[in-house]
């Protein structure tokens, strides 16, 4: 039984703490808090849960493992954290090989994962909030939806505490207590040290700032999120307005059904690079202008509705868009679990196991994809047909 210190109580940290505790280790979860931390990527009203992943079958398979566990968590915790309202991916031209939509449908078919394909007319009948004739092709995957991310983190942290995970809130890690080829623990902002047999860094986009030698592999990028109050809420009910990606590889825009009276729309693009604690972390007039232009062309009934909340949510980007869950080769008892690239939340049901396997040095095929890979340089985009989120 080892003492494992987990730095960061977002979804990566809390799931790792729960799994390590369940495997008999002492787990100490450290975060400046409050938890869920308001600046954490995990803290929002919704994150998409989908198996549609373009040509990448690894993520499709991982998501298919997760969806039944999300359903179980709803029962286990007696609250609907995951809403199976389906996901919609549409494009302005006929789906063609190489496209995110085409490749997603091809892989879903191969996995016998049900989905409906439709043409422009049928699409508008089913989903009337979208501008008529805007989209020519696409598919609806009913075995998918969204998770209430902030509530999920809060629920899992409470659960972790019932298991005996030691939660250290108001505790910011400012350094790793390291010797030649291992780490001995962490150093807190107040000078206190916490000793442990292993340290897991699950600090999301803060990771390259906490461990500067990882800056060649990680970039913190900010992405705009908008919460709108619809004047016609009936148009945005899940059955008529599920999670959607609107020609996502071109526009970057995606959104969620009515949830707590809000329609959330966000944009997945290159983002703006800065520290999660930067003063630049606010939505710009230009980003809002781009949103309004998108809504006017695509969801006209929302185009002039009020924006009631905005945030800049941070990705921890890697050079190839894949997660990074691996021990540091120079200090094997320092494990870095981050590199979410804007698409990690849906994998909460398996993230803890993957990280715990990395801590224990247990074989797990997916760890090859998430290995410590300094050889992969920035700009190596694996396929154009990818969408994170
Ligand atoms: C705009 C946007 C949209 C997204 N949409 C989706 C989606 O639809 N579906 C999906 O699956 N994923 C989505 N994601 C990705 C998802 O949010 C992330 O994969 C996930 O939340 C990352 O969790 P994390 O625990 O790694 O990081 P975070 O949630 O950011 O948590 C990191 C934690 O580390 C703590 N910390 C930082 N520094 C220190 C320190 N020095 N000491 C102690 N603690 C520290 C912070 O307080 C924080 O609590 C999206 C992300 C963004 C930004």
Structure, explained:
The chain is an alpha+beta fold and 389 residues long. Helices cover 27% and strands 27% of the residues. Strands 5, 6, 7, 14, 15, 16, 17, 18 and 19 form a nine-stranded mixed beta sheet that branches. A six-stranded mixed beta sheet has the order 9-2-1-13-21-20, with helices on one face. Strands 3-8-4 form a three-stranded antiparallel beta sheet, with helices on one face. Helix 1 (11-22) runs parallel beside helix 5 (149-163). It binds flavin-adenine dinucleotide. Flavin-adenine dinucleotide (FAD) binds at residues 7-13, 30-32, 37, 40-42, 47-48, 172-173, 202-206, 210, 223, 225, 266, 313-315, 338, 340, 342-346, 389.
Instruction: Give the total of beta strands.
Output: 21
Rg calc = 21 Å
- What ligand species are in this complex? flavin-adenine dinucleotide
Bin the strand percentage.
25-35%
CATH class of the largest domain, please? Alpha Beta
The appropriate CATH architecture of the largest domain is 2-Layer Sandwich
Distance between the termini: 36 Å
Tell me about the largest β-sheet. Answer: 9 strands, mixed
Low-confidence segments, given as residue ranges, are none
Say what the CATH topology of the largest domain is.
D-Amino Acid Oxidase, Chain A, domain 2
Label the structural class. alpha+beta
Oligomer: single chain
């Amino acid at each position: 039984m080892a003492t494992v210190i987990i730095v960061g109580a977002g979804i990566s940290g809390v799931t790792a703490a729960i799994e390590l505790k369940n495997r008999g280790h002492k787990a100490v979860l450290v975060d400046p808090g409050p938890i869920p931390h308001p600046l954490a990527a995990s803290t929002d009203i919704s994150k998409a849960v989908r198996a549609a992943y373009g040509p990448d079958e690894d993520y499709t398979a991982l998501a298919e493992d997760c969806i039944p566990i999300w359903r179980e968590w709803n029962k286990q915790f007696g609250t609907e954290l995951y809403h199976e309202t389906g996901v919609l991916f549409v494009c302005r031209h006929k789906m063609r090989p190489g496209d995110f939509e085409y490749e997603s449908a091809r892989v879903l078919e191969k996995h016998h994962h049900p989905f409906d394909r439709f043409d422009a007319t049928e699409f508008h009948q089913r989903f009337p909030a979208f501008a008529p004739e805007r989209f020519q092709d696409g598919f609806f995957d009913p075995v998918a939806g969204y998770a209430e991310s902030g509530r999920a983190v809060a629920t899992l942290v409470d659960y972790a505490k019932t298991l005996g995970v030691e939660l250290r809130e108001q505790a910011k890690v400012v350094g790793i207590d390291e010797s030649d080829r291992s780490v001995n623990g962490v150093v807190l902002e107040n000078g206190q040290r916490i000793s442990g047999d292993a340290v897991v860094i699950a600090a999301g986009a803060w990771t390259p700032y906490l461990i500067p030698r990882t800056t060649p592999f990680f970039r913190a990028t900010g992405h705009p999120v908008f919460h709108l109050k619809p004047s016609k809420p009936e148009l945005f009910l899940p059955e008529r307005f599920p999670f959607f990606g609107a020609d996502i590889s071109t526009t970057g825009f995606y959104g969620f059904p009515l949830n707590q009276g809000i329609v959330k729309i966000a944009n997945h693009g290159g983002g703006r690079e800065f520290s999660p604690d930067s003063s630049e972390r606010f939505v710009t007039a230009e980003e809002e202008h781009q949103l309004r232009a998108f809504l006017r062309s695509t969801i006209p009934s929302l185009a002039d509705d009020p924006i009631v909340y905005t945030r800049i949510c941070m990705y921890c980007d890697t050079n190839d868009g894949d997660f990074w869950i691996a021990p540091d080769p120079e200090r094997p008892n320092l494990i870095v679990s981050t590199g979410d690239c804007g698409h990690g939340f849906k994998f909460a049901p398996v993230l803890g196991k993957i990280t715990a396997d990395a801590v224990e040095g247990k074989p797990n095929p997916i760890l090859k994809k998430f290995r410590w890979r300094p050889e992969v340089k920035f700009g190596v985009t694996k396929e154009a047909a990818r969408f994170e989120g």
